[in-house]
Each structure stands twice: as C-alpha cells, then as structure tokens.
Amino acid sequence: DALAPVSVGEVYQLRNINGQPLPWDPPSDDSAYLPMTVTDGWIKFLDGSVAQRHERLERWVTGVNGDSSLLVNDWTQTAAYERLPGRIVLSYPPSPGGGAGADTLYLGPRESLILHHTGYLSQGSTVRHFCISADC
Fold first, then answer.
1. 3-state secondary structure of 120
2. What is the pTM of this model?
C-alpha cells in the first residue's frame, strides 16, 4: 500500500511543538502568538474516512482586582480524511464561526505524524508532532 498508513482507533498523542514537550508556551517575545499554553492534543482516526483532532489551551488572566482565573479552551474538530503517498489530509467542514479548511499530516519516523502550521489562528509557524507510542 503506497498510501499513508493510519491506525484506526489508536490515539496519536501530541508529544511536542517545535521540538519542545508539552505543556508548550509560545515564545513570549513574539507578538504573533496568542498568550496561552498548549497542554494536550491528539488525533484519532475513527474509521476509514473520519478523524478527530483535539487540543487543549490554557491561559491565566488577571482581573481588575488582581485575582487570577484559569481559562481553558478544549476543542475537538471532526474531519474527513484522505490517505495520500506520504501524507494524510484532514478536511474540516464549515463551522458556525466561519472556519473550514484542511490540515496536512506528513508521515514521520516510528508511526508519527507531523503537522506544520504557518500563521494559524494568529500564531507564527508551529510544528506539531503526534505519536502513538511515547518513545517516538
């Protein structure tokens, strides 16, 4: 099979972003990044044509009286996927906020998937590394 392999039912955990393990904080000197921390993420192939991608973002905010609150944003998107040579393309349907689009996952070593975003959601360039096993 020359097409990119998938392991249906397995969870590909987000292991690192830009080579740094989770939790990941974007560079504080880069205003292109949102002030948040990525604490969790995964991709799961539900069957032969549908996948889900999930991420958890956390951010501490300080109120006018000096109290701090943790804001948590968990999001999960369902996408159709297509297996191609050396890559898997996730295609997201339109969302109420107007978002839609595609993510291209490239095959990495040891059954890993690599997702490279440029300018995604006001962020600079990021490379996310997803793996089934912890030692990838």
1. helix
2. 0.86
**Residue 92 in tokens:** 């997201």
Q: How far apart are CA 88 and CA 5, in angstroms?
A: 9
CA distance 118 to 19: 16
Digit-coded pLDDT (tens) for 18-74: 999 999 998 776 555 567 899 999 999 999 999 999 999 999 888 889 898 999 999
Q: Are 111 and 99 in contact (CB under 8 A)?
A: no
Backbone angles phi, psi at 120, to 5 degrees: -80, 125
Alpha-carbon gap, residue 71 to 98, rounded angstroms? 23
The Cα 37–Cα 30 span in angstroms is 14
Q: In the structure encoding, which two tokens stand for residue 42, read together? A: 């995964």
* DSSP H helix total and E strand total for the chain: 0, 9
pLDDT in tens, 66-77: 898 999 999 999
What whole-number distance in Å separates Cα of residue 5 and Cα of residue 86? 9
